[in-house]
Design brief:
Length: 276
């Protein structure tokens, strides 16, 4: 997709939740936080991974998976984007795949008219084992294959989800040509891995791609017993953390400033110096 040239500051916000097991309750809470972000002037709002469901078991999401273009979560996102007149990116929701025991973990972007402009199926699936703590997303999730970006008033926006953050080659590919203005990172980082690596990785992706990174996280102790790290934040192209929300539900954000993007890229033209 051809990047658009941003000409004016563009306010963005990340919503942080502590998602539970009730789909209806989760959507109601997300709706209130989206409204808070929009009232604060955000033109683009990012929800976290699993904003609509964190079940008591990993298979619970299979029961609420939706067909492409049809389902209550997709309708909720489209309606919220249109009602508030914002760009809205729905962290992730479970989408139908041919395997009856698995889903795609899908991020959907909607424009201010409520029209879907992009779909990204999470490519890298999290696996971690240390002592009694163990995760294997591949048991219930089918990996996507295609990197995705879309154009918004702030420029090119790169989509990604959680574990993707550890794979810099994904973002390098998306930043080809005129570069990326904003990387989106909806996530549900565990407390263990988030405490160790979350901020370091977010800042690294911003620095090496000379762009803003907006991260919306799950942040607290969930009904299913899982604890997530939180620390939703906005990072600028120099790697500076502009705003962060350590834990609990809420909204955090700031401004995507095209002048700041241009300044960083002019002072240190690393993207133009690439050889490989």
């Amino acid at each position: 997709m051809t990047a658009t040239a941003a000409s004016a500051p563009f306010r963005v916000a990340a919503v942080q939740t502590v998602t539970g097991t009730s789909l209806d309750a989760n959507l109601a809470r997300a709706d209130a936080l989206i409204a808070e972000a929009a009232a604060g002037g955000a033109a683009l709002v990012l929800l976290p991974e699993y904003f609509c469901m964190m079940g008591r078991s990993e298979s619970d999401k299979v029961a609420v998976r939706e067909h492409d273009g049809d389902g209550p979560v997709q309708q909720f996102l489209a309606d919220a984007a249109r009602r508030h007149g914002i760009w809205l990116v729905g962290g992730t929701l479970p989408m139908w795949c041919d395997d009856p025991a698995r889903v795609y973990n899908t991020s959907l972007a909607f424009n201010p008219r409520g029209e879907r402009v992009a779909r990204y199926d999470k490519i890298h699936l999290f696996g971690f084992t240390r002592g009694t703590e163990s995760y294997d997303e591949s048991r219930t999730i089918l990996a996507g294959r295609t990197p995705v970006s879309f154009d918004a008033p702030c420029g090119r926006v790169a989509m990604s989800v959680c574990y993707d953050l550890r794979f810099p080659e994904l973002y390098r590919g998306l930043a080809a040509g005129d570069g990326t203005s904003l990387i989106l990172m909806p996530a549900a980082f565990t407390y263990t891995t988030g405490q160790a690596h979350w901020e370091i990785l977010l800042r690294a992706r911003a620095i090496e791609n000379q762009c803003y990174v907006l991260a919306a996280a799950q942040g607290g102790k969930h009904e299913n017993g899982r604890r997530t790290w939180g620390h939703s934040m906005l990072v600028d192209p120099w790697g500076e953390v502009l705003a962060t929300l350590p834990e609990g539900e809420g909204v955090v954000g700031g401004v995507i400033d095209p002048a700041r993007l241009a300044e960083v890229r002019q002072n240190l033209p690393a993207l133009r110096h690439r050889v490989l």
